[in-house]
Each structure stands twice: as structure tokens, then as C-alpha cells.
Write a structure and sequence with these properties.
Layout lengths: L1 E2 H6 L6 H14 L9 H8 L4 E5 L4 H14 L9 E5 L7 H18 L19 E3 L2 E8 L15 E6 L3 H4 L3 H18 L19 H4 L22
Parallel strand pairs: 2-3
Antiparallel strand pairs: 1-2, 3-6, 4-5, 5-6
Length: 238
Amino acid sequence: MDSATQIVKNIEKYEKWKQVVFKEFDAIMNNKIRIFPCLFGVKGYQKDMLRFGFYKKLTAKNIMEDLINYCDNYKSFGKNTSFVAFEEPAPIQSVEVYREKFWSILKDLRALDDRKWPKHIPKNMDDPLWEFCFHGEPMFIVCNTPSHINRISRKSSTFMLTFQPRWVFSDLLDTEQKAKNAFSTVRKRLEPFDIITKSPFLGKYGDPKNREWMQYFLQDNNIESSPCPYHIMERNND
């Protein structure tokens, strides 16, 4: 797990595919003409608060050690931190295949997790206060894939996951006005960035009509996706 500064400093020591996917990410985050919609992510990257992992295969077992390390230390990285996990590029699959893969990883992470689900977070994914948790930390997750064509904000040259601790939002969105301003900015950035219109499933955490899990993996259209394949994640020791 490395910072952007570490990667840039030692870029020639990384395998070619790692150099390519990181430079692509860097170009997106630093683009001043086509500004990436997630203002928190852009600020975090520019202030070196993000951490990165590269994996031949993005599986729960492969990322677990780095994710635990990140969960133990993320507060020291800065208020706009995230953990970004890249998979080595492979033949492009369908959006649905990536969606199944995404939820399989989350299910497997839950099965491997040795910490109990936080008491203040509901286990029922249909609850507006539900959030995925790992190592005792609630976190918002975003999946990017090579198959996203219309929703460019969710497109990447490879399968990519971003883990963002809910702690990040505790100050940034702790008042109605802050939340309103943040969502307004994101919406304004999304309109010119994506080919498709804003997803109807984007919403504010805790809003009775909002479901966090529906925002993790957005389809490449605005049609409601099929039910989450693992609608209630449980562990034997919960």
C-alpha cells in the first residue's frame, strides 16, 4: 500500500501495467478542463491523502492485508483519504460480470473479517443507515470498470475499487448546508463529465429514500439494477 508521492518517486520500479493505470488515474485527478466529479477524491489525491494497492487478481484474500492496514491507519493520512485498489488489466467483461465480481469480493471480505459488525450500523441492507463494514470500519465503496462507457465517472481501464471510510464525511457533510453544497457541486460536475444523466440512485446517507449499496456499483444506464446478490451480509460469529 503506497501513497501517490511514493509511487511517483519510484515509478520506474513498478511493473508497466501499474505505471499505466496509475498515470491514468493521476491524469483524471489532475485534469483542469474535465474536472472529476468527486471533489473529496480530487482534494484527497492532490494532498497525497490517498493510498494505493496493485493486485494481479482483485480478490478479498489478496487485498485483505492492505485493507486492514489502511483501516488501522487511515486517520493519519488526512480527512479526504481513500484506499484505491487496481487489478491488472485483463480481457474486458460485461458490466454484469463485474457487478457480480464486486459483490463477491464484499461478501468474501465479510466472511474473512475477524471483527464484529459495528453495533451502530444496521445489518439490513434495505435500511438507509446501512453501510458496508470491514475491520470495524463503515465505508463507502465505489467500483469502476472498463465496461462503463456512458457513465465515464465510473470508467477505468481496469477493474478498480475505492474504499472511503464514513469518517471522511463526518465533518464534510455534518450539516444540511454542507451536504447540500457538496451534492450540488458533484451534480454540476457530473452533468458535463458523463454522457448519461446523473444516476437516480445517488443520494445522501441516512435519507429514508436512499440506499447506500445501490450507489456502490452504478450501472451504465439509469435502469434500476437487479437486487443485490448478497442482500444481507452475515457472518457466523455476528
